[in-house]
Amino acid sequence: MRILFVYTDINTMGFGSRSYHFGIGILSAMLKRHNHQTSLYCMQGSYKIGPLIRKITRFKPDLLAFTSDSTQFIYIKKILKGIKHLKIFSILGGAHVSLRPQCLSETDGLNAICKGEGEYALLELVDALENKKDFHHILSLDFKDDNSSIVKNPTRPFITDLDSLPFSDRDIFDYQKVVDSEFGRASFMLSRGCPYSCTYCASPAMGRLQEGRYVRFMSVERAIAELVYLKEKYRFKSIFFADDTFTISKNYVYEFCEEYKKKIDIPFELNARVESAGFDLFKALREAGCFKVHMGIESGDEKFRKDVLNRKMSNEQIVNAFDCAKKAGLLVKSYNIVGFPFETEQICRATVDLNQRILPDGHVCYIFQPYPGTELYEICKKEGFVDKNLFQKEVMSRRDTVLKMPFFTRQQIIKCHRNFSFEVYKKHSLRRALFYRLYYSRYGELLIRIFSPFKNYLRSFAIR
User: Fold this and answer.
1) How far is it, in rounded angstroms, from Cα 410 to Cα 264?
2) What is the rounded distance in angstroms from the CA atom of residue 371 to the CA atom of residue 201?
3) Which residues pair with 151 in a beta bridge?
4) What three-state secondary structure class fits 282?
5) Domain 2-151 part of CATH 3.40.50.280
């Protein structure tokens, strides 16, 4: 069978970087392991259906496989409508459709959806189609038949043994170009799932979709083996471990650090939770080659963060975690979000103030998006902050808001977002503050793309 993956990355904060999607990488690897042919079309930047149709004409796929989050779903619907005349079997996976399966009946031209993890479900479907067998009973898949009736199936348990999965197919993304667009940084994930229950995140709902253990790690041996393979196959200067909670198990971290130093020994950075942070852990990471840790603040208002976001760490815990990382010799990066339901300009100001106190070496600031399956999405619907056509609107992902709140208007949210970085750094480094003012301006994406050949210089200019 010939499977064409279609990945959209439209209207997002890409800033000239090329895309890599972990889910597509492992799905493609699983299909290739079983002698199927795969290819990819990445629609990045803007919506253009013509090049995709030409790709389909050349590759002649038997199945089209899509993945989507909530901000990209509108483009998937447009694509399916634009290629409906080609009459190719199509399936959609990802968090959005997993948590809002009614999308199947609402989407013209879509034949099936995958709920939750898709490695074995997609493989079973492809094998059934190839052998012309009935596929309507496959666990984790829902189908639309010829008269638009929906066939629903239960989900299968979570994959227990991550070591049993093949190495991700990165070649499908022309991965060397992805690395080069990210300042020579490769990305990797050792785990799946997150044990926390943040109200703005889809992960808790995804963890309830299937039976079994949600938070799982590869063995250290398996992770190192794939990293050795990456090191031999691609050229990169550093690695970013994109796991939600890399540091949740200290014993795992210590074992990983020991093996990583011996067999990989390439600078790396990772995500960490404030709750699992500590000097000894950061010191071990530093000795293994870690140079930066990323930790979430999200909101600087302690009560708001606890009551609305269900993040229960105190401001003092946050400050201590960042201090411990710095004392261990690590750079630090903070994650922040503005535009939450019930947030105000004063609460946003508290987030700025906490970042000024920490003074991170880097940070990101996003605008809140209400994702299906999250507690805050349900609250937004109940309070009338979003309308029924939410998923039929084109929105600049993480740079605009779909919420309508009289006490924190769209104009105020966008202004806070654009000024956030300037306010954080203006007293410490005017150069950095001005750079971020440009970076987060309405013209930031365009300018970064124009000056992308010089972005290494621009970054060094900003952080000096």
Assistant:
1) 47
2) 7
3) 143
4) helix
5) yes
Cα dihedral value 16, 22, 28, 31, nearest 10: 180
**Token pair belonging to 171:** 């070649």
- Residue 452: what residue type? S
Q: Which amino acid is at 128?
A: A
pLDDT in tens, 147-192: 789 999 999 999 999 999 999 999 999 999 999 989 999 999 999 9
Q: Which residue has the tokens 């948590």?
A: 99
CB half-sphere exposure, 48, CA atoms < 13 A: 10
Fold of the 183-428 domain: TIM Barrel (3.20.20)
Under a CB-based contact definition with an 8 Å cutoff, are residues 94 and 122 in contact? no
d(CA 196, CA 382): 24
Select from 342, 398, 320 the least CA-distant residue to 199: 342
Reported in sequence order, the residue ranges of 20-126 that DSSP labels E, i.e. its strands, are: 37-45, 63-67, 89-93, 112-114
Residues in the chain, how many? Answer: 464
Helices (H) and strands (E) in the chain, counts: 19, 15
pTM of the predicted structure, to 2 decimals:
0.93
Every domain of the chain and the residues it spans: 2-151, 183-428
